[in-house]
Amino acid sequence: MEAITFLLDFILHVDKHIEAFVLAYGVWVYALLFLIVFVETGVVVMPFLPGDSLLFIVGALAGAGLIEFAPACAVLLAAAILGDQCNYSIGRYFGPKVFQWEDSRWFNRRAFDQAHAFYERYGGITIVLARFMPFIRTFAPFVAGVAAMRRRQFTMFNVVGALLWVLGICTAGYFFGNLPWVQQNLDKIIWGLILVPGLIAVLGAWRGTRQKALQSP
């Protein structure tokens, strides 16, 4: 219970925790940043770790001179790219096993084939956009691996998505994170970075399901 409480407090007050870690341990913060982003993107069971808010806070801390911007971005980029590659590889490992399954209560071969076709056609843009959506960015590379998306194609869009995600949000934090209004409303911004992309994803999924239901006889 204490671990869950600490995790929730860390997610909602990531700025204070990261700043305290920098003041206490200095350059070891780069190892912590790598670990958080790698686990969030690379371990399919850990989608709840902070992502967008962490990048924004890192940019803000760099803007305040507490950490170096370029090394922080390099570490976060490496973690994001390697994390997705790890997640994809896990899915790719289980993919061939899934291909051997027969239709059952737990597996629908037609749905699996549709997922494979979808990732062959739209997998690239899905991987890029998923970077900006909590939870989805953790599951998208895993599903891409299970759906047997080509590794070369996945890797290219993985790198593109990581560059846009890390550099985009860190740069925003660097230039805007220390403005008085932002500092006063940082808790609301963190909530927004967590909830808004998630709500957009849920709405998109709901609309897709509703449209499919309307098209069904």
Automatic annotation (TrEMBL):
Q: How does it sit in the membrane?
A: Multi-pass membrane protein
Record carries keyword Chaperone: no
> Subcellular location, in the record's words?
Cell membrane
Family matches, as InterPro entries: DedA, DedA-like, VTT_dom
| Gene Ontology CC annotation, any one | plasma membrane
Where is it chiefly localized? membrane
Which family, according to UniProt? Belongs to the DedA family.
Supply the name of the protein.
Answer: Membrane-associated protein
* Source organism phylogeny: Bacteria, Pseudomonadati, Pseudomonadota, Betaproteobacteria, Burkholderiales
